Amino acid sequence: MNREQSKKTIVEIVESVQGCKITELICHEKMESVIASSSDDIVVLIDELIGEEKLVGVEYVLSQMPYRVKQFLLPAGVEVFLLPPGTKVDIEAIKDRVKK
């Protein structure tokens, strides 16, 4: 599997599960062939896919683990809304934002 095929497989996995953590991606059964055949670091491939706008990456730090950065991957085109703590989720307002 070449570099582009590896990247295509990563995108297909993220799209099929509608988003996942990198640890979930790496454990996915289709990643075995990517890991076995790729001479590139998987994180480098993911960073390239984010840069190419083929994936959306959300990085976050949990307060109980400030020494670790976690990342969640989403399919391209997904909109991300950050809601501050205590915010009541208004589904209708979200639907209106998405329509625009």
Summarize the structure.
The chain has 100 residues and is of the alpha+beta class. 47% of the residues lie in helices and 14% in strands. It has a single domain (3-99), classed as Arc Repressor Mutant, subunit A (Orthogonal Bundle), CATH 1.10.10.
Give a written overview of the molecule.
By secondary structure, the chain is α+β, with helices and mostly antiparallel strands. The protein has a single domain (3-99), classed as Arc Repressor Mutant, subunit A (Orthogonal Bundle). The chain has 5 helices and 3 strands. Strands 1-3-2 form a 3-stranded antiparallel β-sheet. The model has no long low-confidence stretch (mean pLDDT 89).
* Total DSSP helices: 5
Radius of gyration: 16 Å
Largest sheet, if any? Answer: 3 strands, antiparallel
Briefly, what CATH class?
Mainly Alpha
Judged by helices, strands and strand pairing, the structural class is alpha+beta
Helix content: 40-55%
Overall tally of domains = 1
CATH topology: Arc Repressor Mutant, subunit A
Mean pLDDT value: 89
What's the CATH architecture?
Answer: Orthogonal Bundle
Shape: globular
- Output the helix-strand order: HEHHHEEH
Q: Any low-confidence stretches, pLDDT <50, length ≥5? A: none
**Numbering strands along the chain, what is their spatial order in the largest sheet?**
1-3-2
| Percentage beta strand | 5-15%
State the separation between the terminal residues, measured CA to CA: 40 Å
Features:
three-stranded antiparallel sheet, alpha+beta, 100 residues, 47% helix, Arc Repressor Mutant, subunit A, globular
